[in-house]
Amino acid sequence: MDTELLSDTFVELADTMVAEFDVIEFLHLLTDRSVALLAASAAGVVLADPRGELRVAAASSEEAELLELFQLQNDQGPCLECFRTGRAVTATDLAGPAPQWPRFAEAAARAGFRSVEALPMRLRDQVIGALNLFGAGPGGFDAADLRIGQALADVATIGLLHERNVRRRETVAEQLQGALNSRVVIEQAKGKLAERLSIDMGRAFKMLRDYARNSNQHLTDVARDFVDGATADFPPPARRQPHR
Questions:
Q1: Do 153 and 199 belong to one domain?
Q2: d(CA 127, CA 185)
Q3: 211 and 144 in a common domain
Q4: Could you read off the pLDDT of 207-228 as tens digits, one per residue?
Q5: The pTM is what?
């Protein structure tokens, strides 16, 4: 394991006091680093909205995002059980006999995954979502990797709740709802760019995210400008006054 990357990840996840903290980028950092540091093929995050309903907040790949959506739409899968119980849920071989979640197991196989570990994003009795690790093969995840994965989920949860406390004008529900609303704009931008350039959704998202980073803008702002037609072409020109 890359110990330097692990150390940097914990620092970045804990640093939520920066100006104009971007929840969406924060959650994508969590999923990307979970894949880079752990023996996971993909990762996803689901968060509860103000009504307590789970919604997809971030994913490291298009396949993982679609599988997360499948769980929520069919009300079946490990992430739902993890959120409802506040405990980790393990599925070591989704292709085995008599799977616990038959429809989810079939969808996972189509997406190229055979194992999953759902880790709760919780602080004491407050559960705000789940971090889900997907594996391409059977057998589950190493115990040491799972401890690190849970630590990443815990730090991310504390970071989100701490940011709420620092900025008392917002409640955690408002903050998370804002992040989930941003996902709608980003999904629209992904679809529009994918259609325009005849590329897949994963590539479209990477282009949007790379441009946001390189131009020092929020991903949501870049996506909104593109969806609203503020720029005729992509990538749009960088703003004169970046947010940092």
A1: no
A2: 26
A3: no
A4: 999 999 898 888 888 998 998 8
A5: 0.71
